[in-house]
Design a protein that fits this description.
Elements: E1 7-8, E2 12-16, H1 22-31, H2 33-36, H3 41-46, H4 50-66, E3 70-76, E4 82-90, E5 95-102, H5 111-127, E6 131-137, H6 141-150, E7 153-154, E8 173-179
Parallel strand pairs: 5-6
Antiparallel strand pairs: 1-2, 2-3, 3-4, 4-5, 6-8, 7-8
Helix pairs in contact: 1-4, 5-6
């Protein structure tokens, strides 16, 4: 089991949630529910009210202990404000996926980039991942820019079978990968 040690950056404290964070966790999700619906439907479904928020935070603690899922709340070191959430989900063969969101008022200040860089180091160093994935909707240009600023590279779209070429159901998700040897500062 990895210790639940906060990750500190120049402006942020990323730390595993505590049960006392439930009210802030719920308030952010509830305030931005419509904005997060397409990207985080499972989280929103699981957290419908403040009681659900406490249940979710308990589950995050259990997932951390088992190594299934590492979830960090993001706080400003200067103001102490709760800004959002970032997580690392280990998969098979040394891969893991990273997901994150920020409160609307926290966007545009470089917090996502700063938090992502910290979680990339955590994934490669503490967790021992070899390859990290971020998925973004094609119209999420800000999310794509954050991934690329840290060194993630877009995956080439898969070749579709000839019979599928004229279909209107083209994936609108872009996958970005970062390999351990390609990480910043390596």
């Amino acid at each position: 089991m990895l210790p639940q040690t906060p990750l500190l950056t120049s402006r942020l404290c990323l730390r595993p949630y505590e049960l006392t964070d439930a009210a802030q966790f719920f308030a952010l999700l509830d305030a931005d529910r419509s904005r997060f619906q397409s990207s985080f439907p499972d989280r929103l479904q699981a957290v419908q009210d403040p009681v659900d928020a406490t249940v979710a935070l308990r589950a995050f603690a259990q997932d951390w202990q088992s190594g299934r899922f590492y979830v960090f709340g993001i706080w400003s070191r200067h103001s102490g404000a709760y800004l959002g959430d970032i997580c690392l989900m280990p998969q098979t063969q040394g891969k893991a996926e990273i997901g994150y969101y920020l409160a609307l008022e926290a966007e545009g200040h470089g917090y996502a980039r700063e938090a992502l860089a910290a979680v990339v180091r955590f994934g490669f160093d503490a967790v021992g991942c070899q390859r990290l994935l971020i998925r973004c909707y094609a119209d999420n240009l800000r999310g794509q820019a954050v991934a690329q600023a840290i060194g993630f590279q877009p995956e080439a779209p898969p070749k579709r079978p000839l019979w599928f070429r004229n279909s209107d159901t083209v994936s609108n998700i872009i996958r970005f990968w970062l390999n351990r040897e390609g990480q910043p500062g390596s």
